Amino acid sequence: GGGAAPIVDFAALNGSNALTIAGGNADVTFAGTTQLTGLTVSGSDSVTFSGVVSIPGSINITADDAAVDAIDVAATIDSTAGSVTLNGVTELNATVDAGQNVVLNGATTITAAMTITADAGYIDINAAIDDRSEEHTSELQSHSFISYAVFCLKK
Which of 96, 46, 42 is nearest to 71 (CA)? Predict the structure, then answer.
């Protein structure tokens, strides 16, 4: 083995159905997505959000790479009526919004001022948080409750 992972790049996804991607160890990039009733990615090495993803359905992402940005949120991800679940080592550079819950299941690095919002649910962080943002203005907002399994801020 040791070859580079295949790359799957979605420039713009729009549609009124749910989309499930079995990554097959690929590196998956979303450059902009709207309207989907759900987005699930599993079995990928990495997932990058390079463009805004705003859909009414839930977003459930699993990335298996051990890199600090296996899940790279470089642009806002927003599940307007559902939940956002990120399973894997995550780098947050942009806002994460959910109509319901936000769940982070993996070590997470915050590299820019950003906000995590769960409008009608909870924020559940099940791993260490490393806040490397310059401005230290990262916010967690939930109208219900915030649950932390492990929460560490380091400079």
Answer: 46
